Amino acid sequence: MTHAMERYFVPEPSKYPIFGSIALLLFASGAVMWLNRVGPGQWVFFLGIAVLVYMLFGWFGQVIRESESGKYGAKVDRSFRWSMGWFIFSEVMFFSAFFGALFYARVLTVPSLASGANEALIWPGFTPAWPTDGPYLVDPFTPMGAWGIPALNTLILLTSGGTLTWAHYGLLKGNRTQLKLGLLLTILLGATFLGFQIYEYIHAYGELNLRLDTGIYGSTFFMLTGFHGLHVTIGAIMLTVTLGRVLAGHFRPDHHFAFEATAWYWHFVDVVWLMLFVVVYWL
Fold it and tell me: Per residue, what are the HEC states of 216-246?
């Protein structure tokens, strides 16, 4: 066992990377064709999704089988941790770009338009205040308030972080019942968050006249909250897979990095939402 823990496992050549490349090609080209109403764009898009799902099930299934068979040692575990850390860092940079766009528009661009040198660029009735919708909208819109569904969703996500931590403590103590219940509660809270966000979008479009094309406010609002909702969806899928593995008897107190990786991702999503709530909804 000591020897197995010291060596580095080298997997056999895999077919799944090429399937991932094909999936991304079909996904991207199908999306472009679909948006431009060219040929069978939507079918190419969904074919890419299907190939991607096949790749994910096959590749992750292979990794899970190798892990459960005891082929991974301390060095492989360390490489997994570094890989997940860099992945989350890339997600930090992803959201930083959108937060940066919001900062640039709100703090720099809108006030600068009120200066005398930019009078020719603005429209009648312009005020250098946030939010601004631009000169081309006929119907005014209502900004999304913070105290309502956004505040409730903040409480839901914070609670989900607590239930996930509670599940982690159950795993470390060998309490499988606590582990299962904590994971199930976290998944349900994530699904509730997404349900409220869908309702919020329907309310924004139907009653507030707040849309993706509602000037810079609408575009930054939906890009930030929409991509965050996508990440919550991905996190909920990861949690569901983790719960399935727990029910199958996987994970031990001393061997459960897949659980930890999912927890890292979920806590990252929580932190991003807190920033969104303050910057997008509250201020």
Answer: HHHHHHHHHHHHHHHHHHHHHHHHHHHHHHH
Question: HSE-up of 255 (CA within 13 Å, CB side)?
Answer: 15
Q: Give the separation between CA 158 and CA 86, rounded to whole angstroms.
A: 24
**Number of independent structural domains in the chain:** 2
Indicate if 61 and 181 belong to the same structural domain: no
Same domain assignment for residues 82 and 11: no
Judgement on whether residues 202 and 265 belong to the same structural domain of the protein: yes
Give me the tens of pLDDT residue by residue for the chain, a chain 283 residues long.
444 445 667 777 788 889 999 999 998 999 999 888 888 888 999 999 999 999 989 888 888 888 777 777 778 888 888 989 999 999 999 999 999 988 888 888 777 776 666 665 666 666 777 787 665 555 677 777 778 888 999 999 999 999 999 999 989 998 999 999 999 999 999 999 999 999 999 988 888 888 887 778 888 888 999 999 999 999 999 999 899 888 988 888 887 888 899 999 999 999 999 999 998 888 7
Same domain, 106 and 168: yes
Report the distance separating Cα 123 and Cα 104, nearest Å.
20
Q: Which domain holds residue 212?
A: 73-282
- Based on the domain organization, do 40 and 158 belong to the same domain? no
Output the pTM of the full model: 0.84
The tokens describing 92, both together, are 């930090």
E-only strand ranges, 73-232: none
Residue 189's domain is classified under what CATH number?
1.20.120.80
Peptide bond into 131 cis (omega under 30): yes
